[in-house]
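Re: the request from the purification team.
They wanted to know what the chain is likely to look like in 3D before they choose a buffer screen. I agreed to run a prediction and write the result into the notebook, where they can find it.
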Amino acid sequence: MSHSRKIKEEHRYVYQQIAHNINYFKRIRGLSTEQLAEKANMSVSHLTALESPGSLKDFSFEILLDIADALEVSIVELVKELK
């Protein structure tokens, strides 16, 4: 059973950073949203919601692992602030 939780205000920045990093690595890998969604075994609409910094969609650790694997980066790379 899946349910969405409200994201805590103090965690908003981390979600925005992850969204930014997904977009960044997607671009440098030359992947479209559709290609990344397929590689990460998720729907395009779900990925679109995750990579939109304004949507702040809650997601599982498993999904983060799938996206990191599809982008061929570590989870750390998805969470850290890129310079």
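For the purification team: The two ends are 38 Å apart (CA to CA).
Please add any questions underneath this entry.
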